[in-house]
Automatic annotation (TrEMBL):
Residues 118-138 are annotated as: Disordered. InterPro entries: Tail_protein_I (IPR006521). It holds the Pfam family Tail_P2_I. This is Phage tail protein. It comes from the Bacteria.
Length: 138
């Protein structure tokens, strides 16, 4: 028996002595119990670290996380977890560095991001520090 099966719907005090209304509320409460249990467990399905493996591909699709075929489950979960931050900083040096560090494991001093701006009038190369050393612009 679930935690919701014995919980009737709350009624106003004026219906407290009406046996028909109380029976109706109890039956409706029992009918809604399975739906309430599913809704209570929804946060576990939407959390990339607690979601069952069967839901992971669905989370990847709805978050727009970029994953490669053959990635292990832990890395795929990390990509889903980082997807909102990466989307917010898409195309910026901070976003590129964040993905390089967190997903691909590229860390300074072995790795330095070089950004060439093709729209600049004179070719310039800008070196950007790692995401730990810089903060995203508001």
């Amino acid at each position: 028996m679930s935690a919701y099966a014995a919980r009737p719907l709350p009624l106003p005090a004026v219906y407290g002595h009406d046996t028909v209304a109380l029976a109706f509320a109890a039956a409706l409460g029992e009918a809604m119990a399975p739906a309430e249990e599913r809704i209570d467990g929804l946060d576990a399905v939407l959390d990339p670290w607690r979601a069952p493996p069967a839901f992971l591909d669905w989370l990847i699709r709805i978050t727009g996380a970029r994953v490669e075929p053959g990635w292990p489950e832990g890395l795929r979960r990390k990509a889903v977890d980082l997807a909102p931050r990466l989307a917010a900083h898409r195309g910026t040096p901070y976003g590129l560095l964040l993905e390089a560090r967190e997903i691909h494991g590229w860390v300074p001093p072995r790795f330095a991001l070089v950004v060439d701006d093709p729209a600049a009038s004179s070719p310039t190369t800008t070196r950007h520090p790692a995401p730990d050393a810089c903060s995203p612009s508001p």
